[in-house]
Amino acid sequence: MNAFDLTGKTALVTGSTMGIGEGIARVLARAGAHVIISSRKQADCERVAGEFKAQGLSAEPRACHIGKMDDIEAMETHLRETRGGLDILVNNAVLSPWRTIDDTDPGIFAKALDVNLRGNWYLSVAATRLMKMKGGGAIINIASVAAIHPDRMLGLYSTLKTAMLGMSRAFALEYGEHNIRVNTILPGVIKTKLAEAFDEAATKMILSSTPLGRIGAPEEIGHAVLYLASPAGAFVTGAGLIVDGGLSIASH
Questions:
Q1: Which of 122, 157, 175, 227 is the catalytic position?
Q2: Pairing between strand 180-187 and 88-91?
C-alpha cells in the first residue's frame, strides 16, 4: 500500500492558479487526486487546469471568490452534484495587504477579513458537509510563520494567519468524530509574488537567517500538504507544521 496515494480522491485547492496554491495542486494531482483548480477568475482556472491536463493529470477549473458567500454556496452545490462530495480542502487563497498598521484602513481590514478568515471558515463548514458524504476527509489551512512571528508591513496578514491556527484547532476538535482531520501548514519564505515584494537587502537577510540557506519552492509546501491529506497522516489532526527551512528558529 502506498500511504501517499490519492487515487479516487477529490481535492479543492483555493488560490491555485499561481504560487503556493498551484504547487500544492500539482503535487496532489500527481498523487492521483482529481483537483479543482480555483481562484477568482475563470480564465486563470482554465489556463492552469489545461496545463495539468496536458501533463496527463486530472484537473477541473472552477472559479470561486471565497470572499463572496454566494460563490461558496455555488461551489458546495457543484461538488455535491458532480463529485458526490469532497475528500480534501486546501484553504490557500489569501489577501496580503502590504502596509503599516497605521495605514490599515477599515475598508482593507474588512476585505481581508472576508477573504482570509470568514471565507476560509465558511468554505470549511461547507467542506465538512461534503466530507461527511464520503465518510471523512482532510482540511489543510495554509497559514504562515508570520502567524507566530509577525512581520512589519504585514500586521493584518499576520493577525489573520494567527486566527487560522485557532480555527484549525477548533474545527479539528468539533469534526474529529466525523473522521474529518484539520491541520495547518506554516510556510516560511517561498518563491511567490509575496516574496518578490522583499527588496534585495531583505532577501539577503532572509537567506542569511535561514539555516538551509535558500528560499522554498511551492511544491515543497505541496509535499507537506500531501502528507496531511493522505493516509500517511491519518492520525494527525489539530497540528501546525512549520515548513520554513528553519527561519523561525534562527531569526527570532
A1: 157
A2: unpaired
Superfamily for the 10-188+218-240 domain? NAD(P)-binding Rossmann-like Domain (3.40.50.720)
pLDDT digits (tens, 9 = 90+) for 212-241: 999 999 999 999 999 999 999 999 999 999
Task: Determine how β-strand 59-61 pairs with β-strand 88-91.
Answer: unpaired
SS3 for the chain is CCCCCCCCCEEEEECCCCHHHHHHHHHHHHCCCEEEEECCCHHHHHHHHHHHHHCCCCEEECCCCCCCHHHHHHHHHHHHHHHCCCCEEEECCCCCCCECCCCCCHHHHHHHHHHHHHHHHHHHHHHHHHHHCCCCEEEEEECCHHHCCCCCCEHHHHHHHHHHHHHHHHHHHHHHHHCEEEEEEEECCECCHHHHCCCHHHHHHHHHHCCCCCCECHHHHHHHHHHHHCHHHCCCCCCEEEECCCHHHHCC
The reported pTM is 0.96
**Are 157 and 149 in contact, with CB atoms under 8 Å apart?**
no
- 157 noted as active-site residue: yes
Other beta carbons less than 10 A from residue 7's beta carbon: 10
